[in-house]
Amino acid sequence: MTKASIAILCSGGPAPGINAVISAITKSFLSAGYQVLGIHGGTKTLFTDTVSTEALTFDMADRIFNKGGSVLSMSRYKPKDDEFNTTFFEKNNVKLLVTIGGDDTASTANRIAAFLKSRQVSVQNIHVPKTIDNDLPLPDNLPTFGYHSARNEAVKICNTFYEDARTSGNWFVVSTMGREAGHLAHGIGAACHYPMIIIPEMFRGTEITFEKIVNLIISSMIKRNMMGLNYGAAAVSEGMLHYMSDAEILNCGITFTFDEHGHPELHNVSKAHIYNILLQKKLQQLGINIKSRPVEIGYGIRCCSPTAFDLTYCTLLGIGVKKLFDDGETGCIVVARGDGKIEPLYLEDIEDQDGKIPPRLVDVTTEAFKLVKDSLHFIRASDYALAEQYVDHPAQYDLEKLSSP
Fold first, then answer.
1. Domains plus CATH for the chain?
2. Hey, which residues are catalytic here?
């Protein structure tokens, strides 16, 4: 009979620490006598006759654990139910499918496991939560692995932009990744002492528009000028666009490509470029001479080397997969709590009625968020009289009013 094996696949986008997870899982299962199969391309070939696999060795695991990127190639492919079959799992005597990814990957793993169970093929599935967006609903506000390393890399870059702004006497409009939630933009902006941070969670209950984004950046520019500061930077989450209506996006004056459903393909454009173009147009209309430059923070931080935090965290998650497997757990996310305890988080407990995992958003009710918000530079009611030297209706640039229903 074929030797018992486990299979590991990665889906979605890269995040620092993937290789540390793969390494820890591989070492743990090889030591227990299992064969470890790495699957390339996520689920793209998993149900075909030519599954792209690689037998992972201890030597390889020992060489990759501290590297950025992923030794297993990735994709965002999501198989349909009618593509499923049991061939790979039966042929290789697979006892465990480990998926490394975000919410879509976790949901897909659950679908695969349900199918295998219906065909009397017993395969446990355990998911390792990965995303630099930090938007998976882990308990106790635990981070998703990769977030801290990506943010650390971004802060190095964004501190340089802030110093450039100070040196050159201008502004930078920095757009950061974060499709659903603003954790990355807020974390970077707060660490870099940016005078303006704009994330979608600030606008719950009110429509998000380009005008509000532009007015908030201008508000910060005016406030800084009133303080005698002719420079600054604004961190804006790319998620702002994902919460806008198609009509709002299409009427902004930027040319887009469209998907098969007629929706604008936001991944094909620089969000920072859009924000900055609209900002400069509004500044010209107001007769305010302030220069700004667009900067996109995203792909440059996904494959950086993991920090010590993520190296340790990912190692615990990888070893934790073996523990949960031995405990007979399946259909769960591996959780490594702050005290080092490994626990399962069952997908069925966090999925919505459609089988999707809702994103964890930035909690704008916390004292920490409110303190950071209060430290931002923007026109407040007490500034209206002085601000009238720049704009006719200062209240239209007040963050409190712009973010209120």
1. 5-146+306-350 (3.40.50.450), 150-302+363-402 (3.40.50.460)
2. 133
